Structures are given as C-alpha cells and as structure tokens.
Recover the amino acids of this structure.
C-alpha cells in the first residue's frame, strides 16, 4: 500500500509544472513607486534607506533597474553582494533582451578585480548534459553565472562540486582577495554505480540442456520481471526527488511557484533540476512497466509439455566490445 501511494504521488507530478504568474498592474505600480523612492534616497546620499526601498520594489516585481541601483549602494561596503546583484541583473536583462545587459556585465567584471574569484572551466558538452549541476559549498550555482566561467566568493577555502546522473566530481580550493583560482570540472562515475564487467572471449559456444521444459523461459521471465520492479522503484525515487524539489521551489518563491516572488532567474536551476528528475521518473516507470509485463508473459506462457529444452549460449567478442547471444527451443 505504501509503495502504491508513493508511485501515485510521483506520477502526479510527472509532466506537470506550473509557470509563475506575471505581476499584475497593482504590483507593477507598487514596484515603480518603491523604486522611485529608492532613487530619491540615493540622490540624497542615504543608501541605507534606499536599499530598503529597492528591495521592497524587487519584492513586487523583478527589475533590472532596481538591481543596478541596489548594487550601486552595496558596492562600497559589500562588493561581493553587489556582484551577485549585478549578475542577477545581467541574467534578467539577457532573458528580456534588455540593452542594460552590457552595463550590468561591465560593472560585475570591474568588481571581480577586487574580489576573490574561482574560474571554473567546464567543457561545453558536459555543461549541456541533462541533469548537470554545479555547487559551491553545497549551494546551487545559477546556470547563467557559471556559463561566464567566473564565480566570486568570500576569501578562504571552498568546495566546488559538479554532479550529473550517476556521475560526480568535487575539489577543494583556496581563494584570496584579488586573485583567481582555476578549477577544471571533470565528472567521474559514482563509486556506488555498478561497474560494467568485461566479457571474456570464449572459443566455442556452450550448449546447456535444461529440465523441465519451459524452465529457461520461466527463469528469463522472472529475471525480466525483476528488472521491471527495479525500474518502477527507480521511478518512485526520482518522483519523490521531484516532489522535494517542487516543495523547495515553493519555499523559495514565498509559498507557491504559481505566484513566485523570488528574483527572476533565481529559481531557474531548481526548475531545471526538477524537470530532469521528472523526465527520469517517467522513463523509469515506462521501462519498468514494459519489463514487468514482458517478464510476466514469458513466465506464464512457458510450455509445460514433456521434453528437454536446449539453450545455446554463444559469446561474441569484437575490438569495440562484446555480446552474448542466447538461442534455442523451450
């Protein structure tokens, strides 16, 4: 019963994803009013009051201008915070085809000379791999940020980590103010993943006589059904992961992804990750279901008449791999 409930819960989220609602006119007007007040405080030399108003503006509506003004106030005392705000502004400008993209990127690049940075070298093929994620000290990095190859961090030791389905890589680095630390991302197969054993060459095929008749077919059916059960279990796991990620997105959005209040682009990495796990869950359910049905057909349609079942197992080895052929009568 518990497994059935988990399967239904996981299946309910596969292929379904709500998009954030656009800000209504009232929210837009509030955002503009708060932004204008923030600019007045900046002109009057009161950045503390301006920061409060600019953040209030961003809570109503994502804005490139509010982020650029917020970074202007943060640059003197918090250059790292200003860099992050400028990168968010650049990300939003890129999505909206806003001409202020160049301004945001230029100002962020100027700040990098004052900060400790990590230059992350990621092969393009690896970066585009479904499910790829990059984290620094356990915090997920926005895809737009690591595409530029430069991540600003606090001085000190950090752990850079990259993951993809069944693959993982991590490295500890030390960063200093005004210096850039280089890291090369290369994913390796997880230690917990089952290794692929090489196929040893065999000179001649092996003929096995099996009793009773139909026994080999039933055995093959049971094995295939076992694969199906494993596939369904994998679908449940990826489905639960999707549910957890969706819950996290709701939290980041202020309670609901349907009316997200988070800065534009800030939850995109979590959305990409959730879509990947949802796709994996769907594929696992389909493959597992087909394997389970096929195994059942083999098992329940196995003949029971008297006679011997001959199975011929013929290994085939080539320079680029090998295979095992199974043929005979049941």
């Amino acid at each position: 019963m518990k497994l059935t409930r988990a399967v239904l819960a996981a299946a309910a989220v596969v292929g379904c994803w709500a998009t954030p609602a656009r800000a209504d006119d009232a929210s837009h007007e509030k955002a503009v009013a708060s932004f204008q007040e923030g600019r007045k405080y900046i002109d009057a030399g009161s950045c503390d009051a301006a920061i409060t108003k600019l953040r209030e503006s961003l809570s109503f509506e994502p804005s490139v201008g509010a982020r650029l003004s917020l970074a202007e106030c943060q640059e003197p005392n918090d250059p790292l915070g200003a860099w992050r705000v400028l990168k968010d502004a650049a990300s939003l400008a890129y999505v909206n085809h806003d001409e202020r993209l160049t301004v945001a990127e230029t100002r962020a690049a100027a700040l990098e000379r004052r900060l400790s940075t990590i230059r992350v070298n990621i092969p393009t093929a690896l970066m585009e791999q479904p499910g790829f994620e990059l984290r620094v000290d356990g915090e997920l990095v926005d895809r737009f940020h690591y595409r530029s190859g430069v991540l600003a961090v606090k001085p000190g030791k950090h752990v850079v980590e990259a993951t993809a389905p069944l693959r993982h890589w991590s490295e500890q680095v030390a960063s200093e103010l005004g210096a850039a630390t280089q890291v090369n991302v290369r994913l390796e197969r997880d230690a917990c993943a089952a290794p692929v054993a090489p196929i040893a060459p065999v000179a001649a095929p092996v003929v096995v006589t099996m009793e009773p008749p139909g026994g080999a077919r039933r055995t093959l059916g049971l094995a295939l059904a076992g694969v199906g059960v494993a596939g369904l279990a994998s679908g449940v796991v990826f489905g639960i992961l999707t549910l957890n990620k969706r819950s996290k997105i709701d939290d980041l959005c202020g309670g609901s992804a349907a009316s997200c209040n988070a800065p534009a682009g800030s939850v995109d990495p979590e959305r990409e990750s959730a879509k990947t796990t949802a796709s994996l869950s769907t594929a696992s359910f389909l493959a597992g279901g087909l394997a389970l049905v096929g195994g059942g057909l083999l098992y329940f349609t196995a003949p029971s008449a008297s006679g011997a079942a001959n199975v011929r197992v013929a290994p085939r080895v080539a320079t680029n791999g090998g295979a095992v052929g199974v043929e005979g009568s049941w």
Summary: The first strand starts at residue 116 and ends at 121.
